[in-house]
Amino acid sequence: MRAPGIYANHTRLFDLVGRRTPIVKVASGFGRLNGPLFSRIGYLLFSDSRGGRICQWTLPHWEEEPLGGRLTTYQVCSGEPQGITFDHQGRLLMCERNPGRVVRREKDGSATVLAETYGGRPLGAPDDLVYNIDGSIFFSAAPAPESFRVRPPGERQDVTSMPRPAVYRIPRSQIPGPIRLERASNECSLPTGVALGPGQNRLYLADARQRNIRAHPIGDDGTLDPGRVFAEFPSDDLGIPGGLKTDEQGHLYACGPGGLWVFSPEGAHLGTIVTPEPPTNCGWGRGFRGLYLTTGTSLYFVGTRVAGTRTY
Predict the structure, then answer these.
(1) Residues contacting residue 246 through CB under 8 Å, at least 6 positions apart
(2) What is the overall mean pLDDT for the chain?
(3) Residue 97 forms beta bridges with which residues?
(4) CATH of the domain at 219
(5) Is residue 115 part of a domain?
(6) For 77-187, where are the E strands, in sequence order?
């Protein structure tokens, strides 16, 4: 694995991140991190899946980022929290596994389960989610790891009860009653990260098994059109495709083997921000500038010269 730093395949990368931009370790000593998510109130949230909690990193001064913060527990979770985001009302949305579900934290502190089954079967393990401008939610889900456990001789697996890897959509509804869940796409073999383009008319999906990123146009009715392979990860470095983010210019930032891969709006690999540990997810910092990166044990930050796509 290469030493941490900014590795460019094209000079266009330096319009997005400086060639000597430091990769700052913010906090460490965790089990497995995901998220991260910066609140407009001025603090960062990230999920500690093995610790069963959402962590809060509060900065003491607006002009200081990211060091000097204070770590507290924002919320204890009954499941294992994964990807998180906000809706337009500032309510926290999160993917959980064990049990697999998508949950919304209400303003009074209560929890609303938005999705936990599809077609009468458990969702499996929701991984990441994004809130769309039309009020709908896209999230990825795959079979839970325990579905693939080694079974004793003679014990058969009921494959009919296993959920299929898919990306789902929760449409916005003003009508009280059960929340409707749609299967938006099952083109990915093992979907992980999801992200919206800057125009909120395209959804990007990371496929950990195929080691690529697919791009789906979003129709006028909010559903996904068939996708195409947008970019690939031809690398033997440690790590798998994971969290995704886009900036206002249409560039895509993708957690992948060895670090954070940066792609042009056309899908060309501009370069990689090589991190000390393989990243799991990424999120824009204060004012949607700078990227926080979660890994297995640590939280990092790298400054950028562009602003990120606003989705909440």
Answers:
(1) 195, 196, 197, 198, 204, 252, 253, 308, 309
(2) 90
(3) 80
(4) 2.120.10.30
(5) yes
(6) 80-86, 92-97, 101-105, 111-115, 117-118, 121-122, 125-131, 137-142, 166-170, 182-185
Q: Residue 295: which of 19, 26, 97, 92 has the closest Cα?
A: 26
Position 97 in a domain: yes
Tell me the pLDDT tens digit for each residue of 114-147.
Answer: 999 998 889 889 999 999 999 999 999 988 654 4
Length of the chain: 312
Is residue 154, in this structure, part of any structural domain at all? no
Residue 159 domain-assigned (yes or no): no
For the chain, state the CA radius of gyration. 19
User: Structural domain tally of the chain?
Assistant: 1
By the 8 A CB rule, do 147 and 154 touch? no
Phi-psi region of 258 (alpha: psi -120 to 50; beta: other; left: phi over 0): left
SS3 100: coil
Provide the domain limits for residue 182.
5-146+164-307
Report how far residue 52's alpha carbon sits from residue 72's, in angstroms, rounded to the nearest whole number. Answer: 13
Question: What sign does the dihedral 16-206-105-176 (CA atoms) show?
Answer: positive
For the entire predicted model, the pTM comes to 0.93
